[in-house]
Amino acid sequence: MTAVLTETEVVTVPDASAPRGLRRQKILSWIAVHAVAIALAVAFLFPIVFVLLTSFMPGEQALTKDLWPSSWHPENYLAVFARSPMLVYLGNSILYSGLATLFMLISSVPIAYALARLQWRGRNAAFYLVIVAMLLPAQVTAVPMYVVWAHLGLTGTLWPLIIPNLFGDAFSIFLIRQFLITIPQSYSDAARVDGASEWQTLRHVILPMAKPGIAAAALFSFLNTWNDYFGPLLYTGEKPENWTLSIGLASFRGQHQVDWTLTMAATVLVMLPIVVLFFLAQKQFVEGIKFSGVKG
């Protein structure tokens, strides 16, 4: 390697072998800097890859030391539908998660708007109550709520899990409220000067700007209800026709505990809609989480 000096600068002239060595040094430096992230990524992805590969294995190879399928069997997925009413469970999960998320948005968005954008006596006390409700474990109210729904004759269905979302969800209210306070107040003031009502201001000014925060809250709600096991088990445990995928997967594992390939295939089918949904809404989800913590 040689160096050429001028009056103003020193220019290094690498030899022929420098580019390859430089690239190798950059790769090693990148690995050293991101070593923790790489280790966490491998630890996170390995179980998912293991489940996916096992779902394509022949039955006798499952849970052996051979992690790569000796032969591929996509018919395992067809066998899942043949041995269990997965489509019924899928429909129930979509009904539960979809309606619960819709009802949550209908109720929680106006409440979050009132807590974030309106000035009224007792607003801070109401917000503290929302935080207390968010910290309250669901198991604390499970027994009294079950008694109420039993007297209404709705046990055995998913409605006891769906209807309460019409009265707001504490975490969603908190998340949306935190996002709404990041929107400058001048937008609302300009709308009021133009004669817009509070409803028109919310609908035409605030909601279009709050889409990332609302999308993040909706995705959280959908994920929580899709993966919910305790609630559907409590209210629909004795009626398999109303089971969701979470209960169906648990019962499937109990019925076919020896056939791990089918169990893994059923697990992949349960995870797939959530993975697709997350990648479709990833941008809005990240933006909503990022801006929801800007101000308290």
How does this structure look, described?
The longest helix has 32 residues, at 86-117. Helix 5 packs across helix 8, helix 8 (170-180) packs across helix 15 (282-292) and helix 11 crosses helix 15 (282-292). This protein is mainly alpha-helical and 296 residues long. Helix content is 69%, strand content 3%. Mean pLDDT is 85; it is low at 1-16. It contains 15 helices and two strands. It has two domains: 2-73, no CATH class; 79-292, MetI-like (MetI-like fold), CATH 1.10.3720.
Strand count, sense and barrel status of the largest sheet are: 2 strands, antiparallel
Number of DSSP E strands: 2
**Separation, N- and C-terminal Cα atoms:** 57 Å
Q: Share of helix among residues?
A: 55-70%
How are strands sequenced across the largest beta sheet? 1-2
General shape: flat
Helix count from the secondary structure assignment:
15
Strand residue content: under 5%
User: Spans of 5+ residues with little confidence (pLDDT < 50)?
Assistant: 1-16
CA radius of gyration: 27 Å
Mean pLDDT equals 85
